[in-house]
């Protein structure tokens, strides 16, 4: 996870305080792996995973498209060199004035999951392509995304029918099987639902063209995950099963899978203590926590690999926590984290697999701590 380039950077630059370092060579390799795994799918990088300009410029130059969640992200992708026809406004919850601004910038592809959103787009982005997000169960994902986004397949039919009636291009359907999805069959279930929407609307003469298969492609944390090639084979088999020879256009939206394993956070041990003399669990406090960029430790969903200078010596379980004056700033307590007994105050540790969803989750100045610094090399 920590490439030699990252280790050399930390050794020579000695940045002060917690920081994220991302190796662009890993991002480049990940993009190529997705291209090879799903050669017929367009790659729309999920900008929210890590919007560092260097990452966006690299991916734009490699031919990537971009999934954006706001006008600011649309502008970031365009500033990085992506033309408007390679950008999707993929958030299903948009202000009407933001849709109008995106339309003014040339964006013509929008996500919806209800008729009310369709009506906004029809008013200020006439003639645009829309795709409707279908609910999935998210089973098998470490960070499920169901309920807030999407609608049941029967409602998706109504939504896309209404889009057509209002002069929009009813372009297709989308789904998201949940972030850090390790169950290869998840896409099969979701594609089955997508096919039902396609078939129902085809009977009414509305021909959908595209399936946006979302993200969910994992990065390796403490457990091994299937390679991009395995996902590609499983998804292609599911497409063939449900759509036969009439394969739709497809989009994938990797975020975590594109940048997660490219980044490492350097952190420092601030304090090691116990809550009672006979307590057999130590508390290890780092200079970064939930509010400094590690929000995905919520409910201990994501367990990051942690490398210490004392690795190889005897370990014991500890509670891992951040530095802020907030009792929620505890990373791992339900399942304590094994760390070396010889770990001491002032030791630097590396938190691996942190290239995605860390800088963007970092609070601006909670407790006066500055946002997570980021270096892209």
Automatic annotation (TrEMBL):
Keywords: Lyase, Pyridoxal phosphate. Residues 26-259 form the Orn/DAP/Arg decarboxylase 2 N-terminal domain. One of its GO terms (molecular function) is lyase activity. Its cofactor is pyridoxal 5'-phosphate. This is ornithine decarboxylase. Its EC number is 4.1.1.17. Gene3D superfamilies: Alanine racemase, Lyase, Ornithine Decarboxylase, Chain A, domain 1. Belongs to the Orn/Lys/Arg decarboxylase class-II family. It comes from Mesorhizobium dulcispinae. It catalyses: L-ornithine + H(+) = putrescine + CO2. The keyword Lyase applies. The keyword Transmembrane does not apply. InterPro entries: Ala_racemase/Decarboxylase_C, De-COase2_CS, De-COase2_N, De-COase2_pyr-phos_BS, Orn/DAP/Arg_de-COase, Orn_de-COase, PLP-binding_barrel. Pathway: Amine and polyamine biosynthesis; putrescine biosynthesis via L-ornithine pathway; putrescine from L-ornithine: step 1/1. CDD domains: PLPDE_III_ODC (cd00622). It is an enzyme of class 4 (lyase).
